[in-house]
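User: For documentation purposes, I need each entry recorded in a consistent format: the amino acid sequence on its own, followed directly by the corresponding structure tokens. There are two entries in this batch. Please keep commentary to a minimum and don't merge the entries.

Assistant: Recorded as requested. Entry 1:
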Amino acid sequence: MKIAYLGPAGTFSEKAALEAGDQQSTYLPMASMPAVMTAVETRAVDYGILPIENSLEGAVSITLDVLIHETRLRICREIVIPIRHMLVAKPDVQLDTIEVLYTHQQPLAQSRRFIERCLPNVPTVATLSTAAALVEALADERRAAALTTLHAAERAQANILAYDVQDTTNNRTRFVVLAPEDAAPTGDDKTSLMFTSKVNRAGALHEALAIFAQAGINLSKIESRPAKAELGDYVFLVDIDGHRHEPVVAEALQKLATIAGRVKIFGSYPKFRG
């Protein structure tokens, strides 16, 4: 089994890929999220891993745009990874001697409290990933440190100066596994989809959502995104309980198709129970 993920190695995306695979799997780091999608579409790999949602920062726009506009791949699984940031440096560097901090923008934003209190005057250097932050810090001749993952720190056998410097302990990212087909029903599934309204009028969204309510189908998530057509046009993205092949869900989706401008099923897959 070959699995593509957003590289480089040592990132949370690689950790999600490792969770999706097994000891016989091989892993292919890709340079971008669309590249992960293309690797699956061309059968260079069997599965692709993409982040879709963070508990603090919300939806991952690139992944949603790929699902909405660019691919017919299906979501066949979801994986939720706790986000833990570590302050890491070379062995001879101590907290009070750090001269520069390498970090990706996300751990920087998610670790403000620690940085303001413990590294208030240390300049930061932006990097492309948490793994790259560690590589660049270890290569710097100055007393440099990095905000990175525990996975990356252990791979590099680097010195961890501080553990779990993120501002909140419930920071998690949901990843989706993309494949040519989604998963078979398990009895504990969810379905992700998008739809648009035929016309922009009062009650159009209520009419669509009422279909699920009348069928007794729970919506676990709803959000809107620009349709990338005309200003003011939106697509609505929802996660619903149940598998698209279950009779009640299938009937609701058929009713939605009769009143919506467009409906696209991203996939049905087991709920994460980690």
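Entry 2:
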Amino acid sequence: MMQLFHAVSEVCSRVTTERYSTSFSSAIKLLHNDLRQPIFNIYGLVRFADEIVDTFHDHDKSLLLAEFKQQTYDAIERKISLNPILHSFQLTVNAYNIDHSLIDAFFRSMEMDLDKKAYDHQGYIDYIYGSAEVVGLMCLYVFCEGDRQLYDKLKGSARSLGAAFQKVNFLRDLNADFKQLDRVYFPGCDFTNFTDCDKTKIEADIQADFDEAYNGIMQLPVKARFGVYVAYKYYLSLFRRIKRIKPARIMQERVRVPDYRKAAIVLRAGVKQQLGMM
């Protein structure tokens, strides 16, 4: 019956991922079957923590996050939780021996979102590391399946991929973050007067992250490479759409990649894989 409890908990993490992010969940499904559920389990934890700080405005977010953080550590130590999201997360953490310092850094960034409204350069670097880069590193633990030498070789690229995804999210969500949550992530930017120069500088930084990430993706184990490459191409496509529009439009609308374009990305990636170009 314990296996049934594991399975039910993991279904919760999978459904959470599918409902909150169709793009990310579709990319996960392109991973080898062995890797899919552990990545769903990581996303479920990350998603719920993010919801606490971004959505639950009518509740005591500080208390909710503190309780969720403690319950996460308890679940990992006890190897069980009645919260299915935390139970499935601890299964992955314990199975792949994920470094707890990554979880610590993640929760530090979530705590920053509770009251920090603007970031200086160092604060921005710290926030990106904890909110995004460590998520890439947790996933890399899964992809490397215990090969620590490979993990050490690819961790820089994994951090860059997480950073690129997060920074693209920041650009895409400028309107909501600034106008609804009163947050300014990019240091030194005045979003009441967001200029082409500001946008170009941010885009150059993101492009450097994408370039570094690509090198690592091509060295991932075969079981992980295709799914991660598709996620990379999804976000790169979104980034290119954002680059083509004026700063004022970013402050007014949320850019997205149409479903037909996502389908084309998967098709082209499949052809590239069949031709041995990945």
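Summary note for entry 2:
DSSP finds 13 helices and no strands in the chain.
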